[in-house]
Amino acid sequence: PYIKAIQATSTQAIEHLVAQHENAAAILLDTPSIQHGGTGEVFDWELIPKNLQKPLILAGGNILGLVYTV
């Protein structure tokens, strides 16, 4: 098992990449960036598919105090 990191560019892109990695133990969603991490920006959580069937790890920016139910 592994955790698949995915850039949150669109709902459709997330769904497509999750389907390609069905053996992943969890999905880590992060802010899209040309650099490898560390943008400090929060991505649009509305992009998260409502029917995601894997454990979800949110990355991207300072998310302290933000609450979201998937």
What does this structure look like?
With 70 residues, this protein is α/β, with parallel strands linked by helices. It contains one helix and three strands. It has one helix at residues 11-20, and strands spanning 3-7, 26-30, 56-58. A three-stranded parallel β-sheet has the order 1-2-3, with helices on one face. The longest helix has 10 residues, at 11-20.
What are its keywords?
70 residues, alpha/beta, three-stranded parallel β-sheet, 1 helix, 3 strands, 14% helix, globular
**Strand/helix succession:** EHEE
- With strands numbered from the N-terminus, the spatial order across the biggest sheet is 1-2-3
Tally of separate helices: 1
Helix content: 10-25%
Task: State the end-to-end CA separation.
Answer: 22 Å
Number of DSSP-assigned strands: 3
Radius of gyration: 12 Å
Average pLDDT, rounded to a whole number, is 85
Strand content: 15-25%
Q: Extract low-pLDDT stretches.
A: none
Structural class: alpha/beta
How would the global form be characterised? Answer: globular
Largest sheet: 3 strands, parallel
